[in-house]
Amino acid sequence: MIKKSLTEKLNNNCLEKVMFVNNYDFYYAKGDFRVNSIFDYLPNLIEEYSEHKLAVRSWAHVEWRDEPEVRGKLSVSEKEADLIVAKTKLLSVCAYDSERVSHELKESLLLCHNFLINE
Fold it and tell me: Which H helix or E strand runs over 116?
């Protein structure tokens, strides 16, 4: 849906600058939900753009399988990702399914995100 919408709004020159990465390929690159995927994968994805001093913006739909330890990993992951975002001057939006986010997880996520946007 995002690709289709962008194709309707952007010309080919702009669309060529958009990189799409499957969220499961990103977060489950090592077989299960690992926060290390962010540190191993994200810097490599944006390295070329950063070298050319181009602004990088990301939108991530954070999704996970029903694994008991994932919620704890999410908090650690977001804190560490915040360091990468600050270091690379990346503008990043993290989207979560509000029905899957407990009150405790929401409070933890708010500690490492500047804004909360509700639909």
Answer: none
How far, CA to CA in Å, does 78 sit from each of 36, 48, 83? 11, 23, 9
Question: Which DSSP letter does residue 80 get?
Answer: H
87: amino acid identity, one letter: K
State residue 52's pLDDT score: 77
- Minimal CA–CA distance to 55: which of 91, 12, 107? 91
CA atoms within 13 A on the CB side of 39: 10
Confidence at residue 12, expressed as pLDDT on a 0 to 100 scale: 92
Rounded to whole angstroms, the Cα distance separating 106 from 96 reads 10
Return the SS3 of 29. coil
Tokens of 58: 């990301």
| pLDDT on residue 33 | 66
- Which tens digit of pLDDT belongs to each residue from 86-109? 877 788 888 888 888 888 878 878
